[in-house]
Amino acid sequence: MQALTVKSIESKGHQEIKVLFWILFGSTRGAPVRTKIVKLLRKQPYNTNQLYQELSLDYKAVKHHMDILEKNNLIDKLNLAHISTYFFSPFFEENRAVFDEIESKMFSNTKSNNNFEGY
Q1: What percentage of the chain has pLDDT greater than the value 70?
Q2: Are the C-beta atoms of 86 and 68 separated by less than 8 Å?
Q3: Which residues lie closer than 8 Å to 107 by C-beta, 6 or more apart?
Q4: Which of 29, 47, 87, 105 has its CA 20 to 30 A from that of 63?
């Protein structure tokens, strides 16, 4: 079976975007958590407290992943009454196909081979 790498991503998009998405959702230790966050945000906007309850993770860990996604312009937040609600940025929406491909390949490879040899 061929190793899953950034070069194996077939979705249209700039190579830099593929690398960014691969790093955030495919090759790093936090990738599974960030993937779960994206899956939840597809259903509805969430705040950090709601996400940490849904994911059963430490609040600080969820906040860390949200900060990473926000710094990379994949999510935006709306601040209302001291509560930040997160939703997808236009940048993420434009490149959703890259995420979808990485997520589907990661899921299909889970049973047979999880080779994260980089890009």
Answers
A1: 86
A2: no
A3: none
A4: 105
